[in-house]
């Protein structure tokens, strides 16, 4: 499964979709990426949202689902553009393994299998900014207040209000020059590595923040399936219109 894909002379866009989670917080019979929304799996919706914006996709999956995934890729006509790798125990391990088949000298995005509502405009902007700056990530401003909980729960008080203007919610796709993120992923795992930027930050500091759209939710818990159904019921055209409006207002 793990043979390196050859890069050609112009800058190619690779995309890793870590899809090897088991969905503990969802608590469903199947891992959540294989749950159906509107007749298709969440994984298929995610691939459909991104495939037209990239050259190659690397899907990190649990071997148990290989046949289902291969059938889905055949149906989608994507079998020759998608490379399967074996998922690891943590998201970090899945991405680390998938990076082994990505050549140097290309841009590589990493996008959660369970974020099917990402906007094409945001995907393109992240690749463009990563090419220009070094790395790029979609972020969302906070629209609710935040409180900080000190570790001992006592000092100076059990919880404190903090200035939310200094914070952003971090989403995916997170896009990098491939040789840099491959180098960063050679580090041993740390608990603070909750996404790919946190791994990259250890070695580099050139990260562009791209405004994201609200819809790019990560389907994690059962209530988010309800939001997923709702977002699917809004037509693609309408979502595109709302995305353009949002991006032009920033
Ligand atoms: N060993 C793992 C764990 C997670 N992921 C992927 O990382 C993304 C974000 O992970 P998360 O939402 O935490 O998914 P799960 O690990 O499935 O969820 P949970 O933590 O509730 O089990 C998902 O696309 C998931 O499939 C992965 O590829 N390999
Ligand atoms: C990568 C990520 O989606 C960025 O927001 C997030 O950190 C994944 O967190 P999870 O707890 O592994 O789902």
UniProtKB/TrEMBL annotation:
EC class of the enzyme, as a word: transferase
Stored InterPro entries: IspD/TarI, IspD/TarI_cytidylyltransf_bact, Nucleotide-diphossugar_trans
Superkingdom as given in the UniProt entry: Bacteria
EC number: 2.7.7.60
GO function terms (MF aspect): 2-C-methyl-D-erythritol 4-phosphate cytidylyltransferase activity
This protein's UniProt keywords: Nucleotidyltransferase, Transferase
PANTHER family in the cross-refs: 2-C-METHYL-D-ERYTHRITOL 4-PHOSPHATE CYTIDYLYLTRANSFERASE, CHLOROPLASTIC
Protein's name in the database: 2-C-methyl-D-erythritol 4-phosphate cytidylyltransferase
Species annotation: Porphyromonas asaccharolytica (strain ATCC 25260 / DSM 20707 / BCRC 10618 / CCUG 7834 / JCM 6326 / LMG 13178 / VPI 4198 / B440)
